[in-house]
Design a protein that fits this description.
Blueprint lengths: L7 H23 L10 H34 L3 E6 L1 H8 L2 H12 L4 E6 L12 H10 L12 H7 L2 E4 L24 H15 L6 E5 L11 H18 L6 E4 L1 H6 L10 E3 L2 E4 L1 H19 L14
Parallel strand pairs: 1-2, 1-3, 3-4, 4-5
Antiparallel strand pairs: 6-7
Helix pairs in contact: 1-2, 3-10, 4-10, 5-7, 7-8
């Protein structure tokens, strides 16, 4: 959800309920009929005392358990980050450490973990729009698809799901005029159909927050100028049209950080002139921005905060 507000009144209400229960229990025991033919006054007193003790313990235990459940659910979010190699570099740049520091200074308990998705085997090392659609929409359900978790299973474990594509997502070919949602061809027309279906699917989990990266860029020379233009256009469409204010889906504009507003991954941010993975220096600089973007979405600033999580 975009705004997750901790309602302290629930705890107050539970305390009030506990007090009422104690009053009812003690009131009822005090009104026990005194039948001298069947029970002595001392027996009645002992029975009443035992009843009060039992009721008190039962109510106290129930209250403690309820408040403990409230505390664990309201002070932290369970977050999973799904990625391949580009995402791994950013993760290694210090995402987990950033959350540790944020929790310590803000009194939160956000817990983040990462996972390669989908794995190399048995599904294959493909994490493009078709693949997310294929696993989460085409093969939706309570059972994993080729050992990959569906949204039905992920949303049972995690409050926030962050997902992305690796940089070959930018290898976009010209449209054919015959788009197909079940095609793995990398075209804008197919991407948009697949993203439309993915958005509709994510909206069916309103209690889960989703954060989607704009597509990773590539170094100049790794793709044609036409492909770079199409990739840039897809990122702009995701950012400006596909993402809608007021729902549970947010975008982290990773591409803008990589390109500085241009068409290609900036050379100073790349692993090398022919390797489009982000280098260690860049990854270390953007890791806190990813952390901030996630926290902004959790704490109700997803539509008002920076779409990049800040500036480099």
């Amino acid at each position: 959800m975009k705004e997750k507000i901790i309602r302290s009144s629930v705890s107050v209400g539970m305390c009030a309920l506990a007090a009422c229960l104690l009053f009812i229990v003690t009131g009822c025991t005090e009104k026990t009929s005194k039948n001298s033919n069947t029970m002595t006054a001392q027996n009645i007193q002992n029975t009443n005392a035992a009843s009060v003790d039992t009721a008190t313990n039962t109510t106290t235990n129930a209250l403690v358990n309820t408040l403990a459940e409230q505390d664990s659910s309201s002070n932290g979010e369970q977050i999973i980050f799904l990625h391949h190699s580009t995402g791994q570099n950013v993760w290694d740049g210090g995402v987990s450490a950033w959350f540790d520091e944020y929790n310590a200074s803000h009194g939160t308990a956000y817990a983040i973990t990462e996972q390669a998705f989908p794995k190399d085997s048995p599904y294959g090392w493909e994490n493009y729009p078709y693949d997310y659609w294929n696993i989460w929409v085409n093969h939706a359900g309570a059972e994993a698809y080729q050992e990959e978790p569906t949204l039905e299973t992920l949303t049972q474990e995690y409050d926030v799901i962050v997902w992305k594509h690796c940089f070959p997502v930018s290898d976009i070919e010209p449209d054919t005029g015959s788009p197909s949602v079940d095609s793995s061809d990398k075209t804008l027309e197919n991407y948009k159909l697949q993203y439309g279906a993915l958005r509709a699917k994510m909206l069916t989990f309103p209690n889960t927050t989703f954060i989607v990266w704009t597509g990773s860029a590539q170094v100049e020379g790794a793709m044609s100028a036409e492909q770079a233009e199409r990739a840039n256009g897809f990122a702009a469409w995701v950012r400006d049209e596909w993402d809608v204010r007021g729902d549970n889906i947010f975008v982290w504009d990773f591409r803008s950080l990589e390109t500085g507003g241009g068409l290609y991954l900036k050379s100073e941010y790349a692993a090398s002139s022919d390797d489009s993975h982000p280098n260690e220096t860049f990854s270390t600089r953007v890791a806190p921005l990813l952390g901030q973007r996630i926290v902004d979405a959790i704490e109700g600033r997803g539509d008002s905060g920076s779409i990049t999580g800040g500036t480099l």
